[in-house]
Amino acid sequence: MTTPAPTSAFSAFALEPFPEVQPGDDLATAITDVLTRTGTALQDGDIVVVASKAVSIAEKRYVDLADISPSPEAAELSAQTGKPAAIVQLILDNSTQHFLATPKGPIIARHHLGYQLTSAGIDRAGADGAWLLPADPDASARNLRDALTTATGANVAVVVADSDGRADRRGATCISIGAAGLAPLRTTEHDGKQQEETLTDMIAAAAGIILGQRGRGVPVAILRGISYTPSDEGVTAMLHHAPAPGRPF
């Protein structure tokens, strides 16, 4: 695998104004429509970063909380953390293990896909529903990358970014949960020392400065000028824990 040249500078911009994503929407079409309206063109090497919630909505990953029956464990965790019991049950249903960052939460869970996430990546949808993660974020990224390349002719990469907290501190950041077109890891070297770095997480975090966490309403950012190695390994390739086999995500 060829090592890319070091990145000394890059640019980033939001793709806006962006329409509110609706269940069943074609994200590639929505993105190309905004590109056309704003007179923006994708370039070879661009990285398109998409908020995971937008992918979940487009893929109809909605769950009606009225359909969830909380278990005694969920009820106990709900009382301890103040989180609705139905949401806690979804966290348990979508994870293999969990722990509380503090006695009152948040709940940190290892998702069946292999990610360790706050609340197993469950995102509230008002008082009555919730959004699950995309069923296969790497596949979602590949499908979007292929559609954008076909529509625009530009060889781009795609990263699906998710808002997530850390067990050791307050606040949220952005991490990658899906990727296509670029290797998720890179190795840097200086003075004979090598360091393996989670490149797609750094890209997601950089895009997160633009995307924001709540209320901004911009689900897509473009990063330009970042050197990377082309690959379709996906984020799954760098996880310590492989997705649980046979799970109906």
Separation of the first and last Cα atoms? 32 Å
Fourth CATH level, the homologous superfamily of the largest domain: CofE-like
Summed up, the helix count is 6
Q: Which architecture of the largest domain does the CATH hierarchy give at level 2?
A: 2-Layer Sandwich
Please compute the radius of gyration using only Cα atoms.
18 Å
Number of beta strands: 13
Outline type: globular
Mean pLDDT: 92
What is the H/E order?
EHEHEHHEEEEEHEEEEHE
Strand ordering within the main sheet: 1-13-2-9-10
Number of domains: 2
Keywords:
alpha+beta; 249 residues; three-stranded antiparallel β-sheet; 60s Ribosomal Protein L30, Chain: A; CofE-like fold
Describe this protein's structure.
With 249 residues, this protein is of the alpha+beta class. The protein folds into two domains: 11-61 and 135-238, 2-Layer Sandwich (60s Ribosomal Protein L30, Chain: A); 62-131, CofE-like fold, CATH 3.90.1660. It has six helices and 13 strands. The chain has helices at 27-38, 52-58, 72-81, 85-93, 137-152, 199-211; strands at 11-14, 47-51, 62-64, 95-100, 107-111, 116-118, 123-125, 129-131, 157-166, 169-180, 185-190, 193-198, 220-224. Strands 1-13-2-9-10 form a five-stranded mixed β-sheet. Strands 3-8-7 form a three-stranded antiparallel β-sheet. A three-stranded antiparallel β-sheet has the order 4-5-6, with helices on one face. Strand 9 and strand 10 form a beta hairpin. The protein is globular and about 55 Å long. The mean pLDDT is 92.
